[in-house]
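Q: Hi! Curious about what XylR family transcriptional regulator looks like structurally. Here's the sequence.
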Amino acid sequence: MGKHISPEKKHTTILVAFDWYDHRVYRGIAQYCKEHHWHLSPYCFSERIIPVNWPGDGAITCFGDIQGESILGLDMPKVDVTLRDMPQQIPRVVVDNDLIGKKAASHFLKRGFKEFAYFSWGDVEINQIRKEAFINSLSDEGVTEDHIHIIHQPDECLIRDWKAHTEALIEQVKDLPRPLAVFTGQDNLGVTLVEACVDAGISVPEEIAVLGVDNIVFLCECSVVPLSSIDTHLEDLGYAAAEQLGRLLSGEIDNSEPVRTVPPGDVINRRSTESIAISHIPVANALKLMRSKFKDNLTLEDVYEHVGLSKRGLEKAFKKHLNDSPASVLRQIRLNYAKKCLTQSDIKIEAIALECGYSNSSNLSHAFNREIGIPPLEYRNRYRSPLFSSRNSN
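A: Let's find out. The predicted structure is below.
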């Protein structure tokens, strides 16, 4: 249960012991520490060293090969942010990897792809969870096994030889059907695949669309073809891990607490998945217009005129190729953007409505109630990031 904190101590002191660094996780932890007047120890920031007899109250850890022994030796309450096998039972907080796989499948299915592939590290547990969720989601939507392909990570001995490594990748990719939608287990793999394809003369995204995970901006935006990626809300992960440690310290939970999952955000769209795998050109053009101009008071009449089809003609084409209507697709594009604004910003609802292409907040509220079942403000209060939960924007 929780560790006793002596009355003379002014602050709870915690340690962050990670094998890797991402400023977003640390920022989430720091936000919770600031709100609860915790002291964050500087150990492990410059060097991966935990002093003997360090007088801390608790630790947030990322169990792995480098820090593993030190983490196991910490005789204090701990919360870990991995799913790696660990010879101690402690609370875990992780991103919802099942939902990540489902989001990837949905992203590609909405773009009309019929051929899919998954590329990941075979020995990374979260990659395999994402893989299974991706494949199962596709199967649930009627995609058969012969349209789902696995791209295997080349032999470990080739990793340090760029030419041999990329040739081994392309050897697997070159004969797969096109257009192909590839979901990679993490961003670095997505960027590697994009670069390999471009070097081999394979067009991204027209022939092969690539989606990563974690939205590491400097990787995604500096790729030879900017990489689309699922935002894993790592600030929320850090905040939730600190929150769980607070519950452990107070005795509210113990080391048998089940794994807590943090929902990921949306796909951050970049060039690598911009293509739409639809043979019907007017439908593809209509979707492209909707996604690029939905903020500009776009009407369905504008869409019909742009693609050169009547209302009835485009509705029939959407039904055939997307199993949906133009009105529903445009509404979902606007609502998805509104949901992102509501949960990841303090922008007032009236301003969000105008930003999404609605004439006023009442129209946005009507769409929310009809499609989601709750009004925008309730959606914000229920699903917003913990980093915004203490603020009132409306």
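A: A fun detail: The chain has 15 helices and twelve strands.
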